[in-house]
Fold:
Amino acid sequence: MHNGTRLAAVDLGSNSFRLEIGYLDHGQIHRAEYLKETVRQGNGLDEERRLTPEAMQRGWDCLARFGERLAGFASSQVRAVATQTLREARNRDVFLSRAHQILGFPIEVISGLEEARLIYQGVARLLPQSDERRLVVDIGGRSTELILGRGLDSQVMESYRVGSVAWSMKYFPAGQFTAEAFRRAEVAAQAVLDEALNAYPRHAWDVAYGSSGTIGAVADVLGEAGWPTGQITRDGLDWLLERLLKAQSAERLRLAGMKDDRRTVIGGGLSVLRAVFELLGMDSLQAAQGALRHGVLYDLLERDESNSDARDASVRRLSTKFGVDAAQALRVATVAGQLLGQMRTQDAATGPADNATAAEFTRHARKLSWAAQLHEIGILISHSDYHKHGAYVLDNADAPGFAQPELHRLGLLVLGHRGKLRKLDADFEDTVFVQQLMALRLAVILCHARRDPELAGLQIECAPAAEKCFSLRCRPEWVRAYPQSAHLLGEESLAWQKTPWVLQTSGLKPE
Structure:
């Protein structure tokens, strides 16, 4: 990306939705605009963990305003992520389907570990360079993330289902502040966070930082009251608790530095923060400027630089962990990429089937490469059904850098790289996916002997999307030299007859 490029991050949190717009300047992203709206989607989950119509409408209305501001942005310049509330919501697909249309960009429901990774990136990027060992704490509406790291590297990450909105609803439902309610809330929070004792011992970090939400609000109030700016201490938390108990309710609470939208969730947030201090033996916490949205912005920048994309590292880690044949994976990835390139060349002559720009094609090719590198990930579990096990692994893996929909799409490619296509629960109207699937299946066939195949005698073309047709031409001398591959390609043509697409072949029968 060049200097001046605009980037945007949309954070669909449990309490607030945020839009951060920045511009790139010599590797740094500088804020151009910041919008925040208190949507309180976390309050809109009913007892069956379904978003109420009112909660969904509040979210859609906010995203409509964000979408108007993002008009003119390319897809590569925007990333929208959703966190704990939409991780929990059983009817999230209803909300997301319309939200995508309203915003104009896809919305990724990220895992708790991916949220933690991005939070750390956001915090670390806005701190001075240092070799200090850091603990980063982020108390959101329905989850709390704890991360240990050094520099820009996050090393230990976890997400816990405890947060300011959830705890306020459960322990301060009428907004009433009592000593007993705080005692019960803190004990319950410590019970959820108890396993953090082993993962985040006091000797493992030098400085603790707090990000966004509750921690920012508490630091603002303490600063206004004369405590050290940007610093939260045990004494400061005790003082704030006294103020809440004296006010007796959120409605009567009046504190300099506290915004009105924070008063209703400060009880839950404070009880969780006090539990973190007590459990981890903390004496002080520095309020950081960086947050999840900043991590999303820098992750967008890194994704433009393939050598620093966290997803590449995740693919390598999974490949190693599951004993993938690295040489075969690279072989299949290379051939699949070449075949996809042939399809795109034909598209360029007849009109792109998906109107993909060169940059978009590069992204599609990288995702195909990841699927190819992982297509045998399930072989450690089963030789006969390894494609099914591989898809399951990807659907349930913790893979930093990947959103859940991305992993599911990779899983579909892995599941569909062999076997019957009619049972594949995939969208065959998605031309890009079908092209990736075709390229992967053909690559696996051509590399069946686990040696580099000869592609000079093959040509694959893709007709415009409306025709749903691929054409594969083989030279006679190639067919005579590789009769087994030719036979398998003929079988592949039959497999596609069970789908809306057609694979036409010519020259497969030797003359």
Residues 348-356 have pLDDT under 50 and may be disordered.
